[in-house]
Design brief:
Blueprint lengths: L3 H11 L1 H20 L9 E2 L3 E6 L2 E6 L8 H8 L7 E5 L4 E5 L22
Antiparallel strand pairs: 1-2, 2-3, 3-5, 4-5
Length: 122
């Protein structure tokens, strides 16, 4: 379940603490999926410090417990879905969030291209 590149980078960066966290990660994710009544819906993805598990209509994100990750859920809560994904659930004790699921497309892929003219002398 844990992408190999993510596991290697985590251990290289965090050492024994990273290895211990990775050993617990599958059971932690399983517990979160059960608690939040989610079912996996795709391959596990990762960033630099956490994994993202796609579920139906959302994602479960679990980050390595590090002081730099403490306020991420606070930011999502403050934004309230305006300019960022919605935060549905959070567990600050294990650096986990249930977030609105986005897709890997851009607005340009969905909005037809238009020609725009500027007013003024030509």
């Amino acid at each position: 379940m844990i992408p190999a590149a993510f596991a290697k980078a985590t251990v290289d960066r965090e050492g024994a603490a990273g290895a211990a966290w990775l050993a617990e990660l599958p059971s932690l994710v399983g517990e979160l999926l059960t608690r939040w009544k989610c079912e996996r819906d795709g391959a596990v993805m990762h960033g630099e410090v956490g994994v993202v598990v796609p579920v139906q209509g959302a994602v479960v994100k679990v980050s390595f417990p590090h002081p730099g990750n403490i306020h991420e859920p606070d930011a999502f809560a403050a934004w309230g879905g305006r300019g960022a994904v919605h935060l549905y659930e959070r567990d600050d004790t294990c650096f986990a969030m249930l977030l609105e699921r986005t897709h890997s497309t851009t607005l340009a892929a969905h909005v037809p291209t238009r020609t725009v003219s500027a007013a003024g002398p030509s």
